[in-house]
Amino acid sequence: xxxxxxxxxxxxxxxxxxxxxxxxxxxxxxxxxxxxxxxxxxxxxxxxxxxxxxxxxxxxxxxxxxxxxxxxxxxxxxxxxxxxxxxxxxxxxxxxxxxxxxxxxxxxxxxxxxxxxxxxxxxxxxxxxxxxxxxxxxxxxxxxxxxxxxxxxxxxxxxxxxxxxxxxxxxxxxxxxxxxxxxxxxxxxxxxxxxxxxxxxxxxxxxxxxxxxxxxxxxxxxxxxxxxxxxxxxxxxxxxxxxxxxxxxxx
Length: 251
Known about the structure:
Elements: H1 3-6, H2 9-14, E1 16-19, E2 22-25, E3 31-33, E4 38-40, E5 43-45, H3 47-59, H4 62-67, H5 71-74, H6 78-88, H7 93-100, H8 104-129, H9 155-165, H10 181-192, E6 201-202, H11 203-211, H12 217-226, E7 230-232, E8 238-241
Antiparallel strand pairs: 1-2, 2-3, 4-5, 6-8, 7-8
């Protein structure tokens, strides 16, 4: 699940979202469950507060985590990101200019451009909110390593692809494995969803499951890693759903 894609502006600002009794960090997949009391560093926290503490400890702040994201997600240049980092820290234009080694007027120019970008973003969101209802696109998966037209697949198209390659039903084996990227991504997503988030698997567990889906299980395993659905340890001994690696238990 791509938590960022379904989060509201307020949820992105706080760094986590709440769905179905679970609170999920937008940046690493750490989760807390409502109704559970968490013991952490000698203190007891209810679920929402524990998540808030996690954001601060693991990511410094939601703003810091957002600014650390790749520019293809934020749309910011490296200089704009650096200016925002200093502004978030409370630096004046003069202090920011000195830290970045640029003119104070240049900092003011970037601040003006960022303000214009904010206005444009508001108008764009308003326009998108009024667009006619169309077929829903399948959202990016959380660990997507590239985000382009290969991901432009509607839910109806995805279902058709699954029907084509899973002739014995959704839990059955693949009849073949496609070369076309869109089809490949749909099938890899389907396979990845069969692994539990927040759980670590041994390589033999991954292999045994994929063997039941397709003879060339090594290729499936490699693609699941390459396309960002699964991640693994350096020695290849353990695997997990990317961005949802089990967090250390609180004691």
